[in-house]
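dumping this here so i dont lose it
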């Protein structure tokens, strides 16, 4: 498909390309229960709303319209159906406060004039790898505790 876009050569159709990524890929790996979007198959896919001018790959989840995991709809028309979003956001805020308290960061700006308490100065010296790792562990544990 890239060859076609770059050089105008008629190599494969979008349908053939999609099939190579889905059904043919599953068959090549020896899987029978995946690769097709059908009632008797375990399907995972995401549909994006690309109608607006703001759609860019890698954008925030606001562009996600529908998500299906193992054949079950998880997000429909941009609304998460499997979790209570208000609860998740409240728990995420609480977890973020725990992290900030642990790091003794002042993100309110109350002491922004003091270099040692300035959030920007603190962020530039932060052990980002450890913070990211900790946040990832918290997120994984959260999902393990709440998903079937």
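and the seq i came up w/
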């Amino acid at each position: 498909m890239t060859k076609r876009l770059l050089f105008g050569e008629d190599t494969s159709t979008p349908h053939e390309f999609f099939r190579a990524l889905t059904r043919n890929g599953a068959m090549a790996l020896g899987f029978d229960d995946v690769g097709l979007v059908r009632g008797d198959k375990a399907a995972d896919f995401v549909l994006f709303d690309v109608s607006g001018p703001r759609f860019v790959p890698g954008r925030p989840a606001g562009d996600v319209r529908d998500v299906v995991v193992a054949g079950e709809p998880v997000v429909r028309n941009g609304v998460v159906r499997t979790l209570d979003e208000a609860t998740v956001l409240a728990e995420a805020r609480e977890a973020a406060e725990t992290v900030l308290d642990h790091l003794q960061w002042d993100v309110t700006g109350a002491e922004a004039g003091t270099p040692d308490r300035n959030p920007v100065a603190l962020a530039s010296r932060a052990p980002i790898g450890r913070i990211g790792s900790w946040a990832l562990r918290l997120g994984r544990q959260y999902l393990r505790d709440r998903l079937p």
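The chain has three domains: 1-33, 44-82, 85-146.
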